[in-house]
Design brief:
The protein folds into three domains: 2-68 and 76-97, no CATH class; 107-173, Helix Hairpins (Orthogonal Bundle); 181-330, 2-Layer Sandwich (Heat Shock Protein 90). The chain is 61% helix and 13% strand. It contains nine helices and seven strands, in the order ααααβαββαββαααββ. The mean pLDDT is 90. It binds adenosine-5'-diphosphate.
Length: 332
Amino acid sequence: MLAVLIALITTAFLSLMPNVELKALGVTAIISFASAFILIYISLQFLIFREINNIYKNIDRIKKNSFKVPVKLKRSANPLRRVNEDILAYADKKQREIEELKELEIFRREFIADVSHELKTPLFAAQGFVLTLLDGAMDDEAVRYKFLRKAAKSLDGLNILVQDLLTLSQIESGHISMKKETFDIRAVTEEVFDQLEENAFEKEIELSIEPTEYEPVFVKGDAMRIAQVMTNLIGNAVKYSPESSVINVKFLIKQDMIQTTVVDNGTGIPPEHIKRIFERFYRVDKSRSKKQGGTGLGLAIVKHIIEKHGSEILVKSKVGSGTSFKFLLPKG
Ligand code: ADP
């Protein structure tokens, strides 16, 4: 229609000229119609149809989930090309969100399976002992105490596991924030040593602090949570060290920070496991950890607490030589 209009206007103008032949008018009408038609068709094809086709192609790729957005989108002057780029960028963003949600869903499912499994073990053990007692073992005094003690131990384990799970979920959900109080981390460490003295004594493990002369080491942080970090780290060192070994806690001033290191000369952690020990329920030697009463959550809690203090927990280990965990806190 546009081409017809252009041809009509051109011919009308030409007819205004004096002495113009009808034949010439006809030829002008045909030529102007044809050239206008070709020009309009080509520009539409290049400017609009091609871009719309691209948009459809991209929508198709999005549907098939096989699209790839150029690393750096150049903002084109062509509005249709911009629409195309925006569709791709939006689809890419949504695709990433979907992938994140899928990962979270897998993580959630695995976590629920792990928690159920971990809860089941001590619960079934305690149930077994109680049922055996009810089935008649209660009449034998020696067996009665032994089984009751075992049931109580399993329930203690269950209690520790539930406490650890609660701590972890509280920290992760962000319900608790870390206090910023000044406290003596050396005094906290000595309290932890007192709590673990019995376990260390049984294995003739020596607990020591460096520097040896008593001088308070003031840091800024949440004293209660850092006490938990120290309990988990020193507790692990005791658990995974052989008899007659030494566990050393070192404090070092690093500019305006205090570096705390817990060093043991225990079993060590094989390099392929190092990356994963901070994951929940990850254990290098499952049966050994369980035998020692480990929940598999200790280091996950440590990592969360230290990260909530804006710091990082670092580990170095060599199989057969020992392990060291260190973290920095601001000087108090
Ligand atoms: P657990 O309750 O099993 O000790 P953790 O989260 O505290 O769980 O530790 C995860 C795993 O890391 C442990 O099962 C153990 O295999 C390994 N681990 C942690 N600390 C040490 C250490 N000091 N020496 C050797 N292995 C360790």
